[in-house]
Amino acid sequence: MSESNMERPQDRIPTGVPGLDTVLHGGLLRRGVYMLQGRPGAGKTILTNQMCFHHAARGGRVLYATLLAETHERLLFNLEPLTFFDTSRIPEQISYLSAFATLEQGGLKGLVEVLRREARARQATLLVVDGLVTVEESAQSKRDFKRFIHELQIHANLVDCTILVLTSSSEEPVGPEHTMVDGVIELADNRWGRRAERELEVKKFRGSGYLRGGHAFQITHDGIVVFPRIEALLQDPSREDPCKANRVSTGIAQLDTMLHAGLPCASTSVLFGPTGAGKTTFGLHFLNECGKEEPGLLFGFYETPPRLLLKARALGLDLDKKQKQGVFDMLWHPPTERILDALGNKLLETVRERGVKRLFVDGVEGFRQSAAHPERISHFLAALNNELRVLGVTTLYTSELQEMYSQEVRLPISGISSLVENIFFLRFVELHSKLHRMLSVVKMRDSDYDSSLQEYRITSRGIALADTFQGAQSVLSGDAKKPATPPRRKKGLPKKRSR
Q: Which of 139-148, 318-327, 441-450, 454-463 has the highest mean pLDDT?
């Protein structure tokens, strides 16, 4: 039985943490006991308080009990800069209770009695126990510790209260507490070389499916933001593929003729070429055809929006006007320390919000450079492309080749040819001691096209194609040759006979 078939309708407690409710398929289940674990500094306290303030904003009441943690004064001081913090909720809806002295004096039994009494008195619908490791250390045996968890479960069911317990990551693979709680969410801060990336993983979640595996997250001024892993989020596209047969113009008339009226609608294309070949220029032509029925988006990593608009003006393309009309937009993400799934989620969010139909991703390497695990990139692109297709988006990627004049061509992303329908190559070609730019259509899935090699020039009016290489040889090697013509015979001289 699949996880999706195991789900049944139950009341949920939304966490209010962007992305986390998506991972949990809607939030926590009511009356459940959930464990949040992670090393110090992983983000447990911020995540939990963010959930508490969201719960209070929805009309709920929260009791937050601490055990040998930072003082409440210090805790609130650290939370105050975050936008979700609302001091007006304290103490009417959110109460903070220090229960360490009770644990020291009355043991686990005394702690359970205090938590029950205070939760009832405050009519708490969400109870937080911060410092489960202290409870475990105070337990005389593992049996007593398990009994404590069991008492929390009984309380959750009796008074319709959801419970969160916070603890440090256990050295044991599976502790007794893991077998008893309804769910385990682990936070980690991992190092990849000199780079660090925070990751959230749902280890266990009874009664519901969820997105498995690690999901990157950030701690921002607004609190924690989780970025569901694209391959898990879009394991299957969100809707049926419309699969229309109409064509989309590239913005270059001669290229449209080569492609027999343009690119197939809602297809994915990649334009390979070395630096300086004009890849971005081709993309700007493609976007210049956007309009009210086909809004356009440039998702770039390298050149800033002002520079791209300046380049478009130099080519005679009026993207400034289209931007003012609201049919064209640009998103720029410099390839510094980015999170791959944050980029993917932002791209899809913008496409859906603006109804984008023409998408130009200038530099697919920007995705690869943002991946903490580069081996993910082909799966990431497969899920992303499938979703863009069903949204009716015609997508054009550019990808830089390292070899400018070499006979060998190594694709920067393994397996990308199986992820896209159309492939175009831009090359520099030497002929008669002069460099020429050359375009070739390598692949168009389920469509005929003109396979002739075309020279193109970048002019003040944009890109122009010409049949320069008719009859030339070794063009794809980068060193084109014209076949030698036989010497012309002088008039009046007889032909030599071969013996």
A: 318-327
Among candidates 361, 417, 423, 355, which has minimal Cα distance to 392? 355
pTM (two decimals): 0.86
- 173-228 pLDDT tens trace: 667 678 889 999 999 999 888 889 999 999 999 999 999 999 999 999 999 999 99
Cβ contact 327:356 at 8 Å: no
CATH number of the domain to which 314 belongs:
3.40.50.300
Residue 498 pLDDT greater than 60, yes or no: no
Cα–Cα distance measured from residue 218 to residue 226, given in angstroms and rounded to the nearest whole number: 7
- Structural domains in the chain (count): 2
Torsion angle defined by CA atoms of residues 256, 260, 266 and 267, in that order, rounded to the nearest 10 degrees = -90
30 and 120 fall within a common domain: yes
Cβ 48 vs Cβ 62: under 8 Å: no
Strands (E), 55-100: 62-66, 94-98
What are 257's two structure tokens?
A: 């003729």
User: 343-391 pLDDT, tens per residue?
Assistant: 999 999 999 999 999 999 999 989 988 988 888 999 999 999 999 999 9
374 and 251 within one domain: yes
Task: Assign residue 243 a region (left: φ > 0; alpha: ψ between -120 and 50; beta: otherwise).
Answer: left
Q: Rounded to 5 degrees, what angle do the CA atoms 100, 103, 104 make?
A: 90
Closest CA to 28 of 51, 49, 5, 6: 51
Residue 375 inside a domain? The answer is yes
Handedness of CA 196, 384, 443, 261 (dihedral sign): negative
The amino acid occupying position 267 is: S
- Name the strand (E) or helix (H) holding 310: helix 305-314
Residue pair 32/163 in contact (Cβ under 8 Å)? The answer is: yes
pLDDT single digits (tens) 377-429: 999 999 999 999 999 999 999 998 876 555 565 666 667 778 899 999 998 88
Q: How far apart are CA 31 and CA 408, in angstroms?
A: 62
- Taking CA atoms, 411 is separated from 268, 365, 414, in Å, by 17, 11, 7
Which range is least confidently modeled, 277-291, 336-350, 441-455? Answer: 441-455
Packed helices 305-314 and 279-287: angle between N→C axes, nearest 10 degrees? 80
Same domain, 341 and 439: yes
239 φ, ψ (degrees, to nearest 5): -155, 180
- Please indicate, yes or no, if residue 436 is contained in any of the structural domains: yes
pLDDT at 402: 73
Give the range of the structural domain holding residue 216, as residue numbers without chain letter: 3-228
Does residue 169 sit in the same domain as residue 283?
A: no
